């Protein structure tokens, strides 16, 4: 009788561990964290500043690895994620889990020792929020997962600010709020044109559970709210004219691009151009808005 060969994981490379950190997402996390650090009043030694940003990156990467460890079976059911290291069979689940725990724990410890206890606490909270509250609890249970879970990606500028000042004031809270409100229209724009993936994987994303019509209305509603929230740093005089004008223009374009998404009632099955345009702009928007914040700070200082 011939034995049936069993599948064995392919040799793990450093690229697979790097892929676990979700580098494209991490780039946005690192950038907003750096923006918070540079925009904060006061100064920080360049070595300590670099250390703080490195800790933010490590913490985000560790949380992403834990997310993929937990969701490896789900990722294998989705075209968008099927080629990740775990569903593709290039890595053992235990290795991904251990890597995520090591990165997360190291990031918090170094932040505590080198920077500030409050920055370390908020970093630990952000990791727990994403890896446990969002990944394990919210994502598989409610279509509001992105709304509530949006806080996970909103922590970096707050952490960067704390690394410089050692405290939490209204301004970094507003930076947190901007990303928190930005997350639903950003992610739902994506979910609208990959909703089949989520449906196949059994994830209750808004377009799957509540339908496209409800999702589109909420995309538009959150975009309008984002317009107002993005102006608050300027209105409270926490940022100057460069930021204020930039927020007005960038957020106005965000709303303008969300209108054809929000008011759309029918569409050809192969046409999702408004949704893809909004998703692409939402990424550019956050980079541009926080760049304006830093530029404003540099001019005023």
TrEMBL record:
<dbReference type="Pfam" id="PF01040">
    <property type="entry name" value="UbiA"/>
</dbReference>
<feature type="transmembrane region" description="Helical">
    <location>
        <begin position="50"/>
        <end position="70"/>
    </location>
</feature>
<comment type="pathway">
    <text>Porphyrin-containing compound metabolism; heme O biosynthesis; heme O from protoheme: step 1/1.</text>
</comment>
<feature type="transmembrane region" description="Helical">
    <location>
        <begin position="158"/>
        <end position="182"/>
    </location>
</feature>
<dbReference type="InterPro" id="IPR044878">
    <property type="entry name" value="UbiA_sf"/>
</dbReference>
<keyword id="KW-0808">Transferase</keyword>
<keyword id="KW-0472">Membrane</keyword>
<protein>
    <recommendedName>
        <fullName>Protoheme IX farnesyltransferase</fullName>
        <ecNumber>2.5.1.141</ecNumber>
    </recommendedName>
</protein>
<comment type="function">
    <text>Converts heme B (protoheme IX) to heme O by substitution of the vinyl group on carbon 2 of heme B porphyrin ring with a hydroxyethyl farnesyl side group.</text>
</comment>
<feature type="transmembrane region" description="Helical">
    <location>
        <begin position="99"/>
        <end position="132"/>
    </location>
</feature>
<keyword id="KW-0350">Heme biosynthesis</keyword>
<dbReference type="InterPro" id="IPR000537">
    <property type="entry name" value="UbiA_prenyltransferase"/>
</dbReference>
<keyword id="KW-0812">Transmembrane</keyword>
<dbReference type="GO" id="GO:0008495">
    <property type="term" value="F:protoheme IX farnesyltransferase activity"/>
</dbReference>
<feature type="transmembrane region" description="Helical">
    <location>
        <begin position="242"/>
        <end position="266"/>
    </location>
</feature>
<keyword id="KW-1133">Transmembrane helix</keyword>
<comment type="similarity">
    <text>Belongs to the UbiA prenyltransferase family. Protoheme IX farnesyltransferase subfamily.</text>
</comment>
<feature type="transmembrane region" description="Helical">
    <location>
        <begin position="219"/>
        <end position="236"/>
    </location>
</feature>
<feature type="transmembrane region" description="Helical">
    <location>
        <begin position="278"/>
        <end position="295"/>
    </location>
</feature>
<dbReference type="InterPro" id="IPR030470">
    <property type="entry name" value="UbiA_prenylTrfase_CS"/>
</dbReference>
<feature type="transmembrane region" description="Helical">
    <location>
        <begin position="25"/>
        <end position="44"/>
    </location>
</feature>
<keyword id="KW-1003">Cell membrane</keyword>
<dbReference type="InterPro" id="IPR006369">
    <property type="entry name" value="Protohaem_IX_farnesylTrfase"/>
</dbReference>
